[in-house]
Design a protein that fits this description.
It is a single chain. By secondary structure, the protein is an all-alpha fold. The chain has a single domain, classed as Up-down Bundle (Na+/H+ antiporter like fold). The protein is built from 16 helices and no strands. The radius of gyration is 20 Å and the shape is globular. The model has no long low-confidence stretch (mean pLDDT 82).
Length: 389
Amino acid sequence: MHDIFMILMVLVSILFFAKVFGEIALRFGQSAIIGELLAGIVVGPSVLGLVCETPVLAIISELGAIILLFEVGLSTDIKEFFKTSGWAVVVAIIGVIIPYFLGYFVFLYCGFTEIQAIFAGAVLTATSVGITARVFVELNRIESTEAKIVLGAAVIDDVIGLAILAIVLKLAQGCAVTFGTIASISAEAVLFLILSVVSGILIAPTIFNLITKMKQSHIVFVIGIAFCFIVSALSAKVGLAPIVGAFVAGLVLSTTKQKDEIKRDIKPFYAFFVPIFFVLMGSNVDVSVFNPFVAANREVLVLIGILFIVAFIGKSVAGLAVFKTGVNKLLVGVSMVPRGEVGLIFASIGLKNNIFKSQDYSALVAVIMLTTFVTPIVIKYLISKQKNS
């Protein structure tokens, strides 16, 4: 009885602070994600100590990550995804390769192990689709050429990032870092993605057309979320992260006529589980490492500064690959900078697998938050400058 009382009260604290800080962030023109991360830092062990991750909360948080990636997959137009312009593909590939190797070499240069450097590089690869899209919508530029290139590239970034995650997870489990190992794991991840998507697209529409004839309320959503859990479980079974399966499930169901119904019904679950995930991610941050008056922390602060520069420049230069006339290359590149939710998931997996220490994780979260905070400001400036020229 005492355990359930404590769990419920912790959940109340998480949700209350998540919504309060999320609202504050939105009022300052930032993503609610920033507010939820800050809420986690405030209620976490290093500040108020109201929330500390437990096995039960870890499971709830994992469900939040799965629902988050499922919704991202659902929101992806797979036809547009495969028809996306060549420029989006080029921007995505460059926007993964450069930040990855910059992050990798920065960590190696700072004395970290090879596996830590590999994981840090992976954290810097993903672009937040949601944050970038929100800025373009607010400025009525979502139909612009730049927006289409960026959003297409951001989705491709996520897919490549998830494949990279599959590799680094295997390496974290003790596989040797060799070309053969990486090639084998990459092939396994790509094969799983292709088989899951193709078989799902062939089967899912027929199944869901039959389900719609049933009279039970919310039956389409229930089967949809069950499908997500099945693919996530299969993903974990073959050694990939469950979020890879969740994204694939969403991508498959985005091809069905029932996708809008599933997206509508998942909103309450998203509103409950996803903030818990972000708050718990924030609660793992140790704010004491940001104290510049402690000599040992200065190396961490320097690392944060270097990684932020690397994260910003690494994505920004991807825009230079666009040679299409009339396209604002700098706007394309800068719009790829926010790391957001996927980067946080990568960092948290590194922490849970003992790849990162608390201070390393805190540094990476700080970089992700900085890219998420600074980029919308720069995008708005570039667009306003473009309008005035």
